[in-house]
């Protein structure tokens, strides 16, 4: 923090200041039982710096490439973003997302094309940019040690690694939340008009990136309202709150599109959140389903608790007994709690819980990736907790968390299990002949496979019989519920002079047994059916290919 910058009463940025005593109050008295914690020097310092560099290097390398083909969501992003801008906005109304990422990807595609690595590289850039921003955000919320801890935790986080290699907006979302932490803290230090405008701009960009960012902003707005009414820094809180609200001006042009999506699209592909959603989400942040996810989640929670652990008070430290001795020992390991810890808790827990509550009330689907906006303050909170420890304890906790995180991130980076689309496309490219027809049931299988097939292959989706490049989510459940698989099978069979190739998968919401009924009717109409590709259980997006030759 710059000299002269004021923080709320009792707040300290640095947890431990190397070589200096730790203070517990504005009077500068030394914390009871706390000894000086000099920074490591010499060879030990060199080893620690080398370890930091190695973790960051691995974090960078893991974010550079994914061997998997694009799955549905990624292919949908490309299908929308490759359109001319007026058509892009029309296509977004049929989707469920705000436009910022798609506009950026549109420009990116014009420059680099639509290859897998090309379209993913936008997220790669955002993911790499998140690393220095994590350091800056951590330093502002908890001092230099917290900055280093935040850099390590973000670099080794398997969730962040995964979405840095995905053609979706989640890496951009994580980056923008980190930027917001930095610009908001600068505005808190000195709430000049220019700094407050930056807060407004970043808040508006967040709202235009992913709708779940609104829940994070709502949580922090609630915190600012409380500070504006009762806090010692009321004028600053009011200005920050006004700046955040003013960011909504950037969202206003998209408001009609948002309202249309709210009425007609939603999230019909997923179940609403349930009682186990919170722990499942934390495990996803830690790398689930990889085996290190549980210990990583536990270590992150422990670090967050340390960040929030109340400072020692004379009455408690003077007490006797086993609990008091344990308390004194823990107090001896911890430095001063920073004022940022409660704010980060509000962002992480509040942003997640508000979003889950709204999704539950509206019966809207949820997937852990939607919570990316809450991940950033959660990792910063854990970093602040690490930084409160004396450096040896901090090094041990960081090493454990980072090592296990990388153990979970490496399989994520090298896995090709997002979709079976590449195998499906190779099979169809080799076997489909002129006069054949490829049918996708459900239509959600179409975008990932169709982008890999020659334009000469005739393809349609069930039940609309439209083109497969994009899924139209408008009134999706109602449309699928009224579809007639037997009638559509007759139309499909009549439209193909050659073989009908059915690419299908069971278990998709709103379809019931329609794809099975479609296959059975095609088999009856054509006299035979042959399964030429079975679903690969290792893939997230599995696909069966069945051939129905002409009579």
From TrEMBL:
Q: Name one GO cellular component term.
A: plasma membrane
Which segments show compositional bias classed as Polar residues? 541-551
> What is the membrane topology noted in the UniProt record heading this document?
Multi-pass membrane protein
Residue intervals of the Glycosyltransferase RgtA/B/C/D-like domain: 98-227
Where found? Cell membrane
This protein's record includes keyword Transmembrane: yes
Please list every transmembrane segment annotated in the UniProt record, as residue ranges.
46-64, 118-138, 167-184, 196-220, 290-312, 333-358, 370-387, 394-414
- Chain spans, region Disordered: 530-551
* Acetylation found in the keyword field: no
Q: Name one GO biological process term.
A: lipopolysaccharide biosynthetic process
**Keywords (A to Z) from UniProt:** Cell membrane, Glycosyltransferase, Membrane, Transferase, Transmembrane, Transmembrane helix
**One term of GO molecular function:** pentosyltransferase activity
- Lineage, top-rank taxon, reads Bacteria
Q: Which Pfam families match?
A: PMT_2
This protein is called what? Answer: Glycosyltransferase RgtA/B/C/D-like domain-containing protein
* Origin organism lineage: Bacteria, Bacillati, Actinomycetota, Actinomycetes, Nakamurellales
